[in-house]
Amino acid sequence: MSSVPVTYGEASITPRGDYAHCDADYTCAQPWARYTPQEHALFARLYARQMALVPGRACEEFVRALPHLRAQRGIPRFDDINVRLKPATGWEVVAVPGLIPESAFFGLLAARRFPVTVWLRRPEEFDYIVEPDLFHDLFGHVPLLFEPRFADYMQAFGAGGLKAQGQHALQYLARLYWYTVEFGLIRSDQGLRIYGAGILSSGGEVAHSLHSPQARRVRFDLPRLLRSRYRIDTFQATYFIIDSFQQLFDATAPDFTPLYAQAAVQPEIEAGMLLPREVDETVGRETG
Ligand code: PHE
Ligand code: CO
Predict the structure, then answer these.
(1) Residue-range domains of the chain with CATH
(2) pTM, full prediction
(3) pLDDT tens per residue across span 195-205
């Protein structure tokens, strides 16, 4: 495999990473012995920074699963995480060189295999990195794979992606991924909480997503979401709130074919825009 441009969000980038030594499905071995002491230390610093931010802001399911990673002291071995993850939900973490083509990505998800990038960001990217790296993929995504409803959603998403490819509907499905898996918010009895990996692996977006008056927070509404553009290079302007992972799974279970057709003939909605009569769920409310 060589490094080819892949679509990432609404952009196309040539990914960082060594694609020469991966298999046809883009998985590779995790080069665990080659991580340097500096990389382990950087990972531990990233972990400590996020750990200080997530209690009371991330959803309970995420916080409870974090210790399963055993990632506090440095980069864990994926195989070691799988010892606990496989019996919990049937998912496993697999190593990939970096961003991979959509069909490969969907195929892995549909098989309950979550691809995690093997390389770690550079120290100067501590606060922000556009391309997903090992820390984002592992810390942000893997804890919720221990949650049975969310785990089922991720598999259904992979299968839905393979199907959408034949329907020229990938841009819609990318929005669904973005606004749920990457940047989703969820209601809890204690207030608004985060479940999106892109927020949970970010130093600044944790607070922004819950509290910034610049951001809109609206009820999860699938037809609306499919029409909503998003940003890949800065904090989000709009967040969608689900009531539960069950709601997310149930709302996305039906065949999307009519939804794709409907979205294709309706205008797109810019990031940060509210529709007429649409309510920002956080105006005048305590967001917890
Ligand atoms: N129900 C979707 C379809 O018919 C599949 C899907 C499920 C997509 C869950 C995303 C998330 O295409
Ligand atoms: Co991600």
Answers:
(1) 6-286 (1.10.800.10)
(2) 0.94
(3) 999 999 999 99
